[in-house]
Amino acid sequence: MLAETICSAVSAAGLGIAAITAYRKRFLTATRIAAYSLVPVGLVMTGVVEWVSGIVFKPGVWIGFGLLAVAWLLFMTTRAVERRSGSTRKERKAARAAERGAVAPAASSPSLTSGAGASAPQAKDGGRKKPQQAAAPGDDFSDIEAILKKHGI
Fold this sequence. Notes:
The protein has about 150 residues and is mostly helical. Helix content is about 70%, strand content about 0%.
């Protein structure tokens, strides 16, 4: 009964504000305020307010929400533990096995230094030099460092 009275009072106040807004020649805003102020009365008339107030004031409902929260917390905890322990161990074991099985582990990554293999592609191009060769590992971040220094970071 109290909830229905409060909803009716809120709707009446909203309609009063809408009337004042319409008096000030802001009809679009007044219409929007009137629409919002009719929502609480509509909820009372459909029985939603009675249903919600019945849920709020029953302790059994809150115990049910508490149990749902505990179940969700248990699910999330088990997922976090499973991610932390299960998959990382498997990935580490696979990485170690791949590293042991490889003949030359560093050969799979591209070489950044110029060696004897770099002269063969130049000979195919008719002796022309490439416009830019691969940068040294220290030069990769030099432009980023310059930007950060420029901004004082």
